[in-house]
Write a structure and sequence with these properties.
With 606 residues, the protein is an alpha/beta fold. It contains 20 helices and 22 strands. The longest helix has 18 residues, at 193-210. The chain has an eight-stranded mixed β-sheet, sandwiched between helices. Strands 18-19-20-15-21-22 form a six-stranded mixed β-sheet, sandwiched between helices. It has three domains: 13-97 and 179-329, P-loop containing nucleotide triphosphate hydrolases (Rossmann fold), CATH 3.40.50.300; 107-178, no CATH class; 347-602, Rossmann fold.
Length: 606
């Protein structure tokens, strides 16, 4: 199967009817997945969480996660059938034939070993090299991923490097033995746009220089558009569309592909984000017929009778749909302008001459800005710019600061424990990782009720009633009330965290990178819910993010932080459309985009 490949030679990688199931029950997680990857080609693999992307990714190495097993199919790399390899032969293949780059570089690096040791091990496991040759190969690799080659860097431990440096070390290790296939599993999730740009360019350069094929797994559609020549879309364990990336992102034929694209924000125009309502079916609960039918606005009776085949279209793509979208439909909508909230005029939050340090090092330098009632101000900048330190100062979680923070004209003390109960209620914080604010041993309703114990004198039934009301507000519903946080998806957990903050009726929300690890569809739903709450309740928000595309969709004003200093501030339209500071212009240039013309100007290349 080679949709829109255009390559006449035999593919470097052939995957046929790959199936992965739960051990014991035999419930399928991935079913009948087939695709090809040509030599030096990068194939994108996209879809929501739970679609089976990562399960396919690790199966390409002949591996299944605990509780799962590969129950059928073929993974052929060159002349080698990976799924036939056992024990020592399989271990040798991992690194020489196929290698893996995880989402979290900490999962690919040993925290107890120095970087130099881990780079040497990457060669020594598979190759017998002399000391000088080994040193030369390591230096070549580090230069290829734009990292220092000196002894001081090689003696560093992983925790002494930034997230972007760690990820480039992992990429270097993956390419060390020049494998035929590199599997990259969400390698840029959570990284700022500048670091992400370095990683994407590194992947492109390494694949070209070392002649490797690549499978790039991600929910970040613009990042996939930057690196992948072709893209396959997964839903409920099956591939539902395969096409050239340009064709897929401009004229999707499957309604699910179009739904994902409609949910993607743009840094160039402020459109209302359209998330995909409903939830993907869980393994063991796939519906009869097309798995997407329960969420599809175009579903008909025949869609629910049998699983559609992955069939070719007249445009050259492959689509698993009985009624694919016509090319004339235009595929992507994204035409509804974002509504603007009513700004009341008074200043809800004022920050003056804020200076903060951490570990003896100054992080924030004379930061000052104001946020009006009912307004959202975004704070953007790369990792290390001071965004999270600023957020934690605002809510009193970071206490080593000087300057002035006023909430409705009242000066706030440095630490949360020094502030009044009413001040704490009026300004709530939503963490990047919802597990930072949710107790995993308490149910969803109990987590939402917890702030009410501190701020209001209510009976148990009254607290329960408020929790259920808030679950409706964040579009979860009463069915989630008695479920533990570990039993729901990341996007659902984040909405629970939003509900927990809203239950005490705050006036100001401080949101710290709350969309950074979410699927585009879940991100769209969460952003639009926050916007609706802003409109309905007059909420004031400080929205910390590195995603400038999301800024267009949620904020009215933006400040740009560089190494703890505000280098540019103003309206979102003014700053993002006509940036004046070189740093702001660089952030916008580094931002991945779905538009091929914009990719060329931003430096992206496939």
């Amino acid at each position: 199967m080679s949709a829109a490949n255009g390559a006449g030679a035999r593919p470097a990688v052939e995957v046929r009817d790959l199936c992965v199931s739960m051990i014991g029950s035999g419930v399928p997680i991935v079913s009948g997945v087939s695709f090809d990857v040509a030599e030096r080609e990068t194939l994108g693999l996209v879809g929501e969480s739970g679609s089976g992307k990562s399960t396919v990714a690790v199966a390409l190495l002949g591996f299944a996660r605990p509780g799962l097993e590969i129950t059928g199919g073929s993974v052929r790399i060159g002349e080698v059938e990976v799924l036939d390899l056992k024990d020592e032969a399989l271990r040798e293949a991992r690194g020489e034939l196929v290698s893996y780059v995880p989402q979290d570089p900490a999962a690919g690096l040993n925290p107890a070993h120095r970087i130099g040791t881990q780079l040497r091990e990457a060669f020594q496991v598979h190759e017998k090299l002399g000391k000088n040759e080994l040193r030369g190969r390591i230096e070549e690799l580090l230069k290829a991923v734009n990292l220092p080659t000196d002894k001081q860097f090689l003696r560093c431990y992983p925790h002494q490097l930034s997230g972007g440096q760690q990820q480039r070390v992992v990429i270097a290790i993956a390419f060390a033995c020049r494998p035929r296939l590199i599997v990259l599993d969400e390698p840029t999730t959570g990284l700022d746009v500048t670091t992400q740009r370095y990683i994407l360019e590194t992947i492109n350069d390494m694949a070209a220089n070392f002649g490797a094929s690549a499978v790039y797994v991600s929910h970040d559609l613009p990042a996939v558009a930057e690196v992948a020549a072709r893209t396959a879309v997964m839903y409920a364990g099956r591939i539902v569309e395969v096409a050239t990336t340009e064709q897929l992102f401009s004229q999707p034929r499957h309604p699910y592909s179009a739904g994902l694209l409609n949910a993607a924000p743009s840094a160039h125009q402020a459109n209302r984000l359209v998330g995909i309502e409903g939830r993907p079916p869980r393994p063991g609960h796939w519906p009869q017929g097309c798995s997407y039918a329960p969420r599809c606005p175009h579903a008909r009776a025949d869609c629910r009778q049998a699983v559609p085949p992955l069939a070719p279209t007249e445009s050259g793509s492959l689509v698993r749909c009985l009624h694919p979208m016509a090319v004339s439909d235009g595929g992507v909508l994204r035409l509804v302008p974002s509504p603007k909230p009513e700004v009341k005029g008074g200043e809800a939050l004022e920050i003056e001459r804020l200076v903060a340090d951490y570990g003896g090092r100054q992080i924030l330098h004379e930061v000052g800005f104001a946020v009006k009632e009912g307004e959202c101000t975004a704070v953007v900048g790369e990792s290390g710019s001071g965004k999270t330190t600023l957020a934690r100062c605002l809510v009193g979680l970071h206490t080593r600061w000087d300057g002035e923070i006023r909430l409705d004209g009242e000066s706030l003390r440095q630490g949360a424990r020094e502030r009044s109960r009413e001040q704490l209620r009026r300004m709530q914080y939503i963490f990047q990782n919802p597990f930072g604010s949710l107790n995993p041993t308490m149910t969803v309703a109990e987590n939402i009720e917890e702030p009410l114990r501190h701020f209001e004198s209510l009976s148990r039934n009254e607290r329960r009633a408020k929790a259920l009301e808030v679950l409706g507000t964040v579009h979860l519903g009463e069915d989630f009330a008695d479920v533990l946080p570990g039993r729901i998806s990341g996007g659902e957990r984040q909405r629970v965290a939003v509900g927990r903050a809203l239950v005490v009726n705050p006036e100001v929300l401080v949101c710290d990178e709350i969309t950074s690890a979410l699927d585009v569809s879940v991100q769209a739903l969460l952003v639009e819910q926050l916007r609706d709450l802003q409109m309905q309740r007059g909420l004031t928000m400080v929205f910390i993010t590195h995603n400038l595309a999301v800024v267009r969709s949620i904020a009215q004003n933006v400040i740009v932080l560089q190494t703890g200093t505000i280098v540019e501030a103003g309206s979102v339209e003014g700053v993002l459309s006509a940036p004046k500071h070189p740093y702001t212009r660089q952030l916008l240039e580094d931002l991945p985009t779905l538009d091929p013309a914009e990719q060329a100007t931003a430096g992206g290349a496939k």
